[in-house]
Amino acid sequence: MRELGGIAAIAISHPHYYSSMIEWSHAFDAPIYIHADERQWVMRPDPAVRFWEGETVSLGDGLTLIRCAGHYAGAQVLHWATGAEGRGALLTGDILQVVQDRRYVSFMYSYPNLIPLPAASVRRIVAAVGPFPYDRIHGAWWGRIIARDAKAAVARSAERYIAAIEGRLPGIREQGTR
Length: 178
Known about the structure:
Helix content is 22%, strand content 25%. The protein is an alpha/beta fold.
């Protein structure tokens, strides 16, 4: 990493990924940016942790953290203005989870327990990233990338997701059978 230029800052989407952040921060002398709504989940306080408030914070060089909430109250994604060859990219963790077919994202309150987010939370996430130009999404897991037209994929995904949880998808009946 040092040969590639080091690390200027660390931004972590939500508490599931906090485990070794202090060690990485100390190793590279890099501050850690976490939304203030996640303060309660930081089990190892350290001066390297910079809690920020509000809906966005600029990290410089075209990098902006966006508070999306949803999965956690302070869940954040990173907008990279020059990513995707200048078309913009989002690094989303599992806040906007790129699904298997790479044409959609999903939104969950709890992945281990398969608890969906309510429609209002999904709308809030879409609204939070809406002002930012992006053509690509890099998700949390290997190969989970929407390479083109990601903004449309998020809109399409939100519409489909909300229709499903409200029982409005064709073929879904109230009792949940197909």
